[in-house]
């Protein structure tokens, strides 16, 4: 879910359909929900790409089930987005999930196109502070949300999506801890 022109569909096409990032400029606006199925080992996942103008307050019954059972929600915005409008939309989605979701849904915010608009670390830090401040104004605990700067033009989108998948895999924190210990001790 996310803001218009933030690159939600481009992200999905690059990750799941191996589309070349330059080709995503030809994609039109998402007008209806799209589904992407993928499997890691024996665990099956579904990713739903909703249009930017999606009304979370009145979803059809089949989409209510999606929100009720979701394990994770990725909200995508761009530094070019109207931050007030984008975060108002995020608040609506967040509040709906808090009321209806039965899976303790993990929440992620991807600031996409960061390589174009926020190419210096100072700009990223300023944007992150502004974003977190705006989100916390409505009494949302920032600690419940994981933030990532992403781009379809480098590995950052794959790294961020990997973190989302890791959060959804049972025992993932233990596995990650073990892998980190292994890497540290073997000096990899």
Q: Topology, please?
A:
Blueprint lengths: L7 H9 L17 E7 L2 E7 L11 H9 L2 E6 L5 H18 L5 E7 L1 H4 L3 H16 L8 E6 L5 H13 L3 H15 L2
* CATH topology call: Rossmann fold
Instruction: Categorize the overall geometry.
Output: globular
- The DSSP helix count reads 7
Strand order, main sheet: write it out.
3-4-5
CATH class value: Alpha Beta
Keywords:
alpha/beta, Rossmann fold, about 45% helix
Structure description:
This protein is an alpha/beta fold and 188 residues long. It has a single domain, classed as Rossmann fold (3-Layer(aba) Sandwich). The chain has seven helices and five strands; from the N terminus they run αββαβαβααβαα. The protein has helices at residues 8-16, 61-69, 83-100, 114-117, 121-136, 156-168, 172-186; strands at 34-40, 43-49, 72-77, 106-112, 145-150. The strands form two sheets. Strands 3-4-5 form a three-stranded parallel sheet, with helices on both faces. Strands 1-2 form a two-stranded antiparallel ribbon. The longest helix has 18 residues, at 83-100. The chain is globular, with a radius of gyration of 17 Å. The N and C termini lie far apart (37 Å).
């Amino acid at each position: 879910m996310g803001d218009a022109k933030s690159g939600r569909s481009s992200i999905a096409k690059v990750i799941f359909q191996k589309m070349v990032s330059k080709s995503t400029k030809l994609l039109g606006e998402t007008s209806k929900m799209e589904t992407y199925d993928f499997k890691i080992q024996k665990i099956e996942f579904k990713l739903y790409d909703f249009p930017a103008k999606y009304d979370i307050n009145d979803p059809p019954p089949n989409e209510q089930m999606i929100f009720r059972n979701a394990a994770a929600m990725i909200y995508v915005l761009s530094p070019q987005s109207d931050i007030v409008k984008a975060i108002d939309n995020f608040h609506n989605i967040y509040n709906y999930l808090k009321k209806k979701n039965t899976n303790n849904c993990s929440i992620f915010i991807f600031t996409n196109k960061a390589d174009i608009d926020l190419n210096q670390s100072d700009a990223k830090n300023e944007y992150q502070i502004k974003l977190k401040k705006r989100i916390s104004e409505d009494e949302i605990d920032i600690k419940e949300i994981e933030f990532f700067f992403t781009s379809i033009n480098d590995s950052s989108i794959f790294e961020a999506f990997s973190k989302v998948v890791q959060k959804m895999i049972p025992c993932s924190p233990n596995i990650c801890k073990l892998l980190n210990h292994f890497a540290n001790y073997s000096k990899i």
